[in-house]
Design goal:
Number of domains: 2
Oligomer: single chain
Number of helices: 14
Number of strands: 17
Shape: globular
Structural class: alpha/beta
């Protein structure tokens, strides 16, 4: 390519900067999001800057997605190298980068195979399809059912909002997809009763899809005893135990996978968010014993292309380092201890602090008027980005590279925010 053409291409690719216009944005973009009044321009590490130049400590990380924070040199080098080499080809062909990523996942999990797509919702759609085919072909069920938990969250497609046990996400989108039933999270008695009810006249329950820790449902960790008994039940009834690892996988809990906190192995699990560190990728993993899908059963045009797999591989190879996961665990302990200290003066205005690693929540009491949104807004004004997990839980999900000093800074700002809201 000639120097003149390169100059022209650069001019097209880098237009003259213009001041951000919120009204123009709102006029052109569909109103599917209730956005905070903040336009983000750039980031570095655990910091973001808006279009006015104001800096923020980012404890949202794209909602548990930016594993290595912003502009991390390892990821920057990986995606730059890959985009200059090859960014996309069809899955009609072998993609070496996809194979390497799948090899890393299977070497570092209980899975034997991986399928790649673009998001957590897509990964969960794949799991749902796999479970249905398993129900038909292995259990010989005419009308297979998947059990999911109340207060769960599995995505925004029609099937995954049906799987999501929260009516607010389903409102006005009926008719919903049939084949789902709901159980209380961490309630083994109710789970056993539901299996007995549905299987009374022969096998119907094909799978149970649960989060190791419910994220959008209020940062509620799974109970180890519940999941260990659930694993036994699934084995007894030939039910697939499927784990949604979209928010808690790839180091977020201080272990590579969230299910490792529960002392069990799932048959199927899904990942996205932190897997790509901000590059859009989703993945469905399964053991060989339940790999019932065949060529033509499922596909994704962009799934597992060289660009996203190159970026994801750089994240995974960083996360697997022992010191990296140790930092996640140490910073999580520091954060939970600091949050407990911050809310202590407010007595019964708060219920508890809970979480694993660097996914943590602070729950406000139901009897007070203050909401999680109010505290998030107050913290934002003071330079700390947080995210709600429902109307009464404030969620803390910083990049996994966060330092002790940044945890202390966040705690100081959070203390000021709750003082402002609660007085």
């Amino acid at each position: 390519m000639s120097p003149q053409v390169l100059e022209q291409s650069a001019a097209i690719a880098t237009p003259e900067a213009t001041e951000f216009n919120r009204d123009a944005f709102d006029a052109a973009v569909m109103t599917t999001y209730g956005r905070f009044p903040l336009a983000v321009e750039r980031g570095e590490g655990c910091r973001l800057w808006d279009t006015d130049g104001k800096g923020y400590l980012d404890f949202v990380a794209g909602i548990a997605t930016c594993t290595l924070g912003h502009a991390h040199p390892v990821m920057t080098e990986a995606v730059t190298t890959q985009i200059n080499k090859l960014h996309h080809v069809s899955n009609l062909y072998y993609i070496p980068e996809q194979g390497e990523l799948a090899k890393w996942i299977t070497a570092n999990s209980c899975a034997d195979r991986a399928f790649f797509c673009n998001s957590g919702a897509e990964a969960n759609e794949g799991a749902i399809k796999l479970a249905r085919k398993y129900g038909h072909t292995v259990l010989n069920a005419e009308d297979p059912v998947i059990l999911t938990a109340k207060a769960s969250f599995h995505g925004r497609t029609l099937a995954t909002i049906t799987a999501t046990g929260q009516p607010k996400y389903q409102k006005n989108f009926s008719p919903l997809v049939p084949g789902f039933e709901y159980i209380p999270y961490n309630d083994i008695g109710a789970t056993e009763a539901k299996i007995q009810e549905l299987n009374a006249n022969g096998p119907r329950v094909a799978a149970i899809l649960l989060e190791a820790l419910q994220g959008e449902g209020g940062v509620r960790p799974g109970n180890q005893g519940y999941f260990q008994r659930l694993r036994e039940l699934c084995d007894e009834h030939k039910i697939l135990l499927m784990m949604d690892e979209v928010q808690v996988g790839v180091g977020r809990t201080g272990k590579i996978w969230g299910y490792e906190n529960l002392g069990i192995e799932p048959d199927v699990f899904t990942s996205a968010k932190g897997l790509g560190g901000g590059v859009p990728i989703g993945a469905l993993m399964c053991k060989g014993s339940c790999e019932v899908v065949r060529p033509g059963d499922h596909a994704s045009t962009y799934g597992g292309n060289p660009f996203v797999c190159g970026g994801a591989a750089s994240v995974c190879k960083t996360v697997e380092q022992p010191d990296f996961l140790a930092n996640v665990r140490d910073r999580g302990e520091q954060l939970r201890a600091g949050l407990a200290e911050a809310i202590a003066p407010y007595g019964d205005n708060f219920i508890e602090v809970r979480g694993w690693g660097l996914i943590n929540g602070v729950e406000l009491s139901a009897h007070i008027e203050a909401t999680s949104i109010e505290i998030v807004k107050a913290a934002m004004d003071k330079g700390l980005l947080l995210v709600p997990a429902g109307p009464k839980v404030v969620r803390f999900v910083p990049p996994l590279i966060v330092t002790a000093e940044e945890i202390d800074e966040a705690l100081q700002v959070f203390s000021g925010a709750i003082a402002q809201v609660l007085g």
